[in-house]
Specification:
The protein has 184 residues and is α+β, with helices and mostly antiparallel strands. It is 52% helix and 20% strand. Helix 1 runs parallel beside helix 3 and helix 2 packs antiparallel against helix 3. It is elongated, with a radius of gyration of 23 Å. It comes from Spirosoma pollinicola.
Length: 184
């Protein structure tokens, strides 16, 4: 009976974590994006996406790059990645912890342990190890994932690039956040 209670408690804690992470995700702040701009000449420019207007893309300087101002007409493609990996870390840790906790629970059903304390410790430690592994996997996946934007419209490639890149700029996001009603 106590093992069943422990399983239900572990499930309740896991569901609570899923719900609470969803509530933390409701913060209103502008996301910062890293960009790699590949020009038609083959040159690459890396930095933080600052702003875009109808003819120029502004790339902010970072520790490793100097940034600059690029004409939209000279761009072959833009690769956009989120600067913060927080969401990928959290998602990876939750999925990894739940999967290994479930696998440990299924394994302990076949190979019974002597006391409920050992059962709980085994589930807890395996879920913690799975969360750490999931954190690493989430980090690797966030490094790989990125959105590639190419000027597909041959009639007006500058306007196409402007419309595709603008939602990622800090100015655009702050304008959207400021237009939201204040909950206070």
């Amino acid at each position: 009976m106590s093992q069943r209670l422990l399983r239900h408690t572990c499930l309740a804690v896991a569901l609570h974590l899923l719900v609470s992470v969803g509530l933390f995700a409701q913060q209103h702040e502008a996301a910062v994006y890293r960009v790699t701009v590949v020009l038609k000449t083959g040159q690459r420019l890396r930095g933080l996406l600052s702003d875009v207007d109808d003819s120029y893309l502004r790339v902010g300087a970072t520790n490793n790059s100097r940034g600059g101002l690029v004409q939209l007409a000279t761009i072959r493609k833009v690769i956009v990645r989120r600067n913060s990996k927080k969401n990928a870390f959290i998602s990876g840790a939750i999925v990894g912890g739940l999967l290994t906790g479930y696998a440990a629970n299924q394994s302990l059903q076949k190979n019974q342990v002597r006391t409920p304390l050992i059962y709980g410790l085994t589930i807890t430690l395996s879920a913690a190890g799975g969360a750490a592994a999931g954190l690493l996997v989430g980090s690797l996946i966030s490094n790989i994932s990125g959105r590639v934007i190419r000027p597909l419209d041959r009639n007006n490639p500058e306007l196409f690039l402007f419309r595709q890149i603008e939602p990622f700029t800090i100015r655009y996001q702050e304008d959207m956040i400021n237009s939201l009603p204040n909950p206070n």
